[in-house]
Amino acid sequence: MGLLSREKIKAPIVEALKKAIKNPTYQFHIPGHTKGNGVYSKFKNLIGEKALLLDTTDEFDGLGTLNPATGPIKKAQELAAEAFGAKQTFFLLNGSTIGNIAIAMGLSRKGQKVIVNRNCHRSVMTGLIASGADPVWIIPEKFSDWGLWGNIKPQDIEKALQENDNVAFVWITNPTYEGVVSNVKEISEICKKYNTPLVVDEAHGCLWNFDEHLPQTSLELGADIVVHSLHKTGGSMSQSSMLHIGKNSTIEPKHIENALMLLHTTSPSLTLLASLDAARAHLDSKRGQKQIQQAIENAKYLRKKIDNLPNIHQLKHDGDYETDITKIFIKADGISGKVLESILEYDFHIEIESASDVGLLILSNIGNSHKDFEYLAKCLKKISKKDYSHIPKNVKQLHMPMLTPEIKMNLQEAFYSDKEIVKKEDAINRISGEIIAECPPGIAILVPGELIKEEHLPYLESYETIEVLK
Ligand SMILES: Cc1ncc(COP(=O)(O)O)c(C=O)c1O
Predict the structure, then answer these.
(1) Is the CATH number 3.40.640.10 carried by domain 3-23+61-284?
(2) Per-residue model confidence (pLDDT) at position 296
(3) How far is CA 150 from the centre of its chain?
């Protein structure tokens, strides 16, 4: 990791921004609010003068550019590559979403196939619509008792590689949103055997390189490209993510850079870029690593407490799969996850990451204190002692789409076909023209080109109409 060598190095974008606001210039350029002077005063008071002073874009004040990366931004990307164990790192605005779209556009095209797990994030589907490649779906294990998708079986990847020609790359999501970890080592070896690049959407695993008690990173295990949502668990600001190219990858970084150039804003927020730089510096510092250890300890503490509650259960690792300890998925006997979420929110002022018809997800974050977890454990204990059987289970809307898709048409062709909007009930046996995916976790119920069936309806409770092909 080279922590000692990098500890002396500051965060270049943070430093450059600091310098820029210390030496203000007469500004005749964007952003037009001009250091906050042209801003609605109530908003200014809310956000703070300094935040607006820092709100600038690239090219000005020696801050470098994002596309292509120059100056402090380039330097910050290089430091990030070193910290995450990559050959090259790209900073992403618009989240890992833009990373996924750039990967599909940069590495695949119409006529090619991409082997991909069906429970991928909707941005993967967006990427495939943009590139025109056909997905070859991998259906991971289903943890039916938990209403969750599980691990991807390496043998399924191998089978898909054996059965399909013209595969541009293999694309897996690891971990799942709820922290289920697949055997990436074996998947990576299989991909190498078939000379096919491996891309890993590791959006939820950006802390892994910084603590040995967390799962091994896909970059370490030989992935060619890895995407990290630093803003999710790594401490950067919302929307900011990173895309890494593996050290031994033969993928030409220019393919990704060119796609990002097409997709990125031409006015990147220096505040967001600085927050990525700062997050890397923090995770790579002693204090940051202490906070990761604390997050792990807090998770262990909560898990131990939950083990003592007879009617609340937690998803744990198993012989077939690992889990990321900091993502704690629980369910309570007789109460749906949504109801448990409401009890926590309204009775105890606790907000958790997400809830489904079955359970809910708690994140142990680097910013949480041990006290937070003591309070949460105490509340769960109180809940476990109370009788909530009078509350309806509220399971009308199923949360996690776990269907096997019936593809009728290429995603891109379907997306660009003539379409009409029909009532949901009239959409049965028609072909979907849109991606329907609830966020979180953003896993598609339907994608363009897929046959709509009765079995989709329980997932579509909140939809009145659906866009279908004419
Ligand atoms: C697995 C996965 N990949 C990608 C994304 C998109 O990430 P972002 O919100 O950073 O655009 C998400 C978002 O939830 C996700 O769960």
Answers:
(1) yes
(2) 98
(3) 16
Beta strands of 320-463 (E only): which ranges?
A: 322-323, 327-332, 354-355, 360-363, 419-423, 436-438, 443-446
Q: Are 253 and 88 in contact (CB under 8 A)?
A: yes
Distance 37 CA to ligand 1 centre (A): 35
- Measured by CA distance, the residue closest to atom 14 of ligand 1 is 441
- Whether pTM > 0.85 for this model: the answer is yes
Assign 469 to helix, strand or coil: strand
Rounded to 10 degrees, the C-alpha dihedral 188/191/197/202 comes to -30
- Is 411-469 in the same CATH topology as 287-385? no
How is the chain split into domains, by residue range? 3-23+61-284, 287-385, 411-469
Q: Distance between CA atoms of 317 and 182, rounded to whole angstroms?
A: 11
pLDDT digits (tens, 9 = 90+) for 206-244: 999 999 999 999 999 999 999 999 999 999 999 999 999
* Distance from the alpha carbon of residue 96 to the mean position of ligand 1, in angstroms: 5
- Start-to-end CA distance of the chain, whole Å, equals 55
The secondary structure of residue 431, as a DSSP letter, is B
Pocket test for ligand 1, best of 91, 92, 96, 126 (most atoms within 8 A of CB): 96
Which pLDDT value is given to residue 318? Answer: 87
Instruction: Give one DSSP letter per residue of 245-263, joined into a string.
Output: EETT--S-HHHHHHHHHHH
- Nearest atom, ligand 1, residue 94 CA: 11
Q: Indicate the top mutation candidate among 173, 218, 229 to test ligand 1's pocket, ranked by most ligand atoms within 8 A of CB.
A: 229
* Topology (CATH) of 287-385: Aspartate Aminotransferase, domain 1 (3.90.1150)
Task: Look at residue 358 and give its three-state secondary structure.
Answer: coil
**Cα dihedral angle (432, 437, 442, 443), rounded to 10 degrees?**
-50
Task: Answer for the pair 210, 289: CB distance below 8 angstroms, yes or no.
Answer: yes
Is the distance from the beta carbon of residue 98 to the nearest atom of ligand 1 less than 6 Å?
no
* Of 114-123, 127-136, 253-262, 382-391, the least confident: 382-391
Report the topology of domain 411-469: Ornithine Decarboxylase; Chain A, domain 4 (3.90.100)
Taking the C-alpha atoms of residue 103 and residue 23, their distance in angstroms, rounded to an integer, is 39
Q: Which band of pLDDT confidence, cut at 50, 70 and 90, is reported for residue 174?
A: very high
Note whether 445 and 437 are within 8 A (CB).
yes
Kindly report the number of other CB atoms within 10 A of residue 242's CB atom. Answer: 28
